[in-house]
Amino acid sequence: MRLSKKSNQVRKIRKALGLTQKQVARGAGISVETLSDLENEGLCRSSVHIRVLRFLGTRCIDIAGFKLVPKRASLSYADEAVVRARIHKTRKIKHEDAYTESLLPPPQLKRMCKRLGLDFEKRFGDQVREISSSTTGADALNALLERD
Q1: At what angle do helices 4-16 and 138-146 cross, to 10 degrees?
Q2: Residues 14, 39: one domain?
Q3: How many CB atoms sit inside 10 A of residue 28's CB?
């Protein structure tokens, strides 16, 4: 499989991060020869290429001017009991509409409030929190690839 464009990207990212082939190979758990083959000839198994990119991606935090950003967060309630009490006080929201076996997730309750003409943020906004699963360095990687 020929990966010439991708191999050029690997070299470009590695050099932008100021890493040697030996450092990247060690971090990705491959030999220097395999990394050299990838960078120079674009020939390697896709699993090797993915391991190299994952290692380089973890190093993006070292690029000046870039930072890791949170992935899209999921929403959850800070205190479900408070939200349940507020739903109970809200006459427009029927019990069976807000509950299945458990309380509806925030995005679904927000859509219901919108449909009913209720201000979700005013009623429940203080009880919704964002929970991020991790961060991503994709913006930094893309910026590196666009340089030249």
Answers
A1: 100
A2: yes
A3: 21
E strand map for 10-134: 69-70, 74-77, 128-131
Nearest to 73 by CA among 147, 134, 3, 5: 134
Range of the domain at 120: 74-131
| Per-residue pLDDT tens digits for 36-91 | 888 887 766 777 777 887 787 776 655 455 555 555 667 788 898 999 899 888 88
Tokens 């009623």 correspond to 123
Question: pTM of the predicted model, to two decimals?
Answer: 0.41
Please give the structure tokens belonging to residue 91. Answer: 């006459």
Task: Please list, residue by residue across 56-73, b when 16 or more beta carbons sit within 10 angstroms of its beta carbon and e when fewer do.
Answer: bbebbeebeebebeeeee
Q: Are the beta carbons of 27 and 37 closer than 8 angstroms? A: no
CB-CB contact of 35 with 48 (8 Å): no
What six digits make up the tokens of 94?
């029927």
Please write the tens of the pLDDT for every residue from 3-33. Answer: 445 556 788 888 888 889 999 889 888 899 8
Structural domain tally of the chain? 2
Tell me the pLDDT tens digit for each residue of 87-146. Answer: 888 888 888 888 777 788 898 999 999 999 999 999 998 998 877 655 555 555 565 556
Note whether 127 and 140 are same-domain residues. Answer: no
